[in-house]
Amino acid sequence: MRLHTVLLGCGLLLSSVTMAQSVNGNTQLKGKIEMKQLISDSAFAWFYTGVNRYDANTNMVNYIKTNKDKIQLVALVNTTDDASKKLLPAFYKVMILASVPEESIHLYGADNSGNTGNTVADGYKVKRLPVILVMRDGKEEGRISGSPKQTVEDDLAQIIMKMNNKKD
User: What is the pTM of this model?
Assistant: First the structure.
C-alpha cells in the first residue's frame, strides 16, 4: 500500500512538470522538458533523427566546450513547430559534443501562443519560438531567436565571444 502511494505521488508530480497534448497529430509538450523524454518517446522520432544527422562545426563546438562552465542555456520550443524541430536537435547535438552538463540546460515546451505554463520560463519575454538564451550568472548575454543566422554552434560561439570580451 505504501509503495502504491509513493508511486501515485511520483506519477502526479511528473505529470504536473510536463503536459502533453496532441496538435494536428503531433505531440506538443508544455512546461519543463528533459532530454531523455524526447529521446525515449517515439512521438519525437524527429528529435533522435535530427541529433544523429546534424554535422556540427568542430572548431565552434570546441570553443563552446572551453567556455561551458561560464554559461547556462535556456531553450523554449514548440514541439509541433517545424523551426523548433530543426533547431532543437542541432542544439542538443552541439551540447552533447561540447560536453555541456545537463544541469546547465533548461528546456521548456510552449504551446502555440508561446505559453509554457512555467512562471520562470514565461518571464523571459520571448516573442517567437524557438529561442535559445545564453545566460551567465542569471543574466542574459544573448539569444538565438527563430533560425540561427549561421549555425547553432556559430551563433552560440559568437554570443560567448561577445560575453568574454565585455568589461565587467
Answer: 0.83
